[in-house]
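Why do we care about 3D structure at all? Because function follows from shape, and shape follows, mostly, from sequence. That is the central idea of this module. The next example makes it concrete: a single protein chain, its amino acid sequence, and then its structure expressed as tokens.
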Amino acid sequence: MKYGFVRARALSPKCLPGDPAYNAERMKEGMAEAAKEGVELLVFPELSVTGYTCGDLFGQKLLINAAEEALKELISASEGKHMLVFAGVPVAAGADLFNCAAAFAEGKLLALIPKSHIPNYREFYELRNFTPAKEGVSVIDYAGFSVPFGREIVLYHQEMPAFSVAAEICEDLWAAHSPAEGHAAAGANIIVNLSASNEAVGKLEYRRLLVKAQSGKCLAGYVYADAGEGESVSDLIFAGHDMIAENGSILCESAPFLGGSATGEIDVELLEHERRAMNTFEASSEGYMKVAFSFPLAEGKLTRKVDPTPFVPEGKELDRRCGLILSMQSSALARRLEHTHSKTAVIGISGGLDSALALLVTVRAFDLLGKPREDIIAVTMPGFGTTNKTRMSGLSLMQATGVTIRTVHIGPAVNRHFKDIEHDPEDRNVTYENAQARMRTLILMDIANDTGGIVVGTGDLSELALGWCTYNGDHMSMYAVNCSVPKTLVKSLVDYEGRRAGGRLEAVLRGILNTEISPELLPPDEEGGIAQKTEDIVGPYELHDFYLYCFVRRGFSPTKTLWLAEQAFEGKYERETLKKWLVNFYKRFFAQQFKRNCVPDGVKVGSVSLSPRGDWRMPSDASAALWLKEAEEL
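And the structure:
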């Protein structure tokens, strides 16, 4: 597909043990349907051509020959289907019989990969029939082709080499030393598993855990096709539990006993980026054979959901994540307070989201340390743009948390400062705005010095990314608790803490959540409302957080980012709007690195941090030309 995605399907068609012709017909039907839907990688279960539960029938030459003939039909049927197919088949080679994954595409058999770990315990007795894979890759004649035969094989698409695939079979996943580790090191971005894992109480959950872990450990996509309907139920039952995973996450899976099929797109471009970023991922293709295949790649939209809020999980996971993040922030602040022997924590309260979150974190930290909340000095500093609504919200928040309240009106001091620097207060330029922010920081720092405390910063990750902070103003503090929390997540954290606390505090926080985001550095409008609305100036934070995640965490190009944004925000933003703010994101991100290169300490809580001492190192004068050129030409 476009932009490094591979549409994969794990399919468990109905089978009849011992009837390869019947099974091949069902598999051909599955191939035809998959081709219509743009599937590029199709995986059938273990021994899907014969059925897994044939037992000693695998000792019958008639069945082995019939399986070869059935595979010939499948290979022929693959011509023009534009997909790489894996089917399970027993293969006789010399005096041995191997349980194999046959890989084929466009009417050509590409490789035969034998199973490495042959289970012979409890309900399994495969050693009775099959031989484990041997070291090395040889060439054998099978189904009218001379093909590579061996475990150490990686297949790759000639036009998109990142579409690289290797196979393991059922028990290989469960073994302590699985082939997948070597496959991934040799460059396979996708591991397929042709499986016949019988169902038992508790096994489904464990199987899912193994698939997630294997894909995460190997930094790979993982396509797991399980035997299902039609397999013998003499002693076992198979549920057709199909799964597709990517780097530790299940993208999709089938419900047991409901005609197994799972379809999803694996981002092989992302997997390559992750492997490059993780220097402990050791690449080695020694002993491996690379086999090329080619067909036109599919077009179309993704079937997997593109999350418009990648920093904010959904459902029950959101509350769990919020609780964890608040614990991380407050524990980190508590450690800093202890280390500096701080008597107080000083924090500026604006009545907005960021300062509300910082105060909630500080309250938690003081509770952890057993320190009285009265030693939290919360300072409200009304200025030229402060509205009555935000001022009252700030006061109500401070009262509800039981902290010490101080009010300092900054207008007179700022006006004196304007006189000193000969600035006309009617000229409401950047000096007019930034002087207020710097005055507030001066006040907080001096109060902290006077009370033996530290200033707790309030700025968030999104503001750092865009440079939406005043240098040496709100940009500066003695510990920045929100520095790796993006704006879209700030809202969720404040909401969570409000629901947890209940009562008056929840009501106050609900009002803050419903207030428009603003630095309030320009005078209110004629109705006394907020005149300076941040998202009207820099763009919607939900878009910038999406772009930030794609750029820093995923390493995506502007083209891929916009394509994904169109799907994530379909029906909400037009393409031109998405492009406008994407261009703005790159401009601001590159231009504002100098602010990020000297930020205060602050704990990393998520997968993205812009601290120069942590995850993001970038010269302040790096050129944005490459990214802007691509974005502007979209």
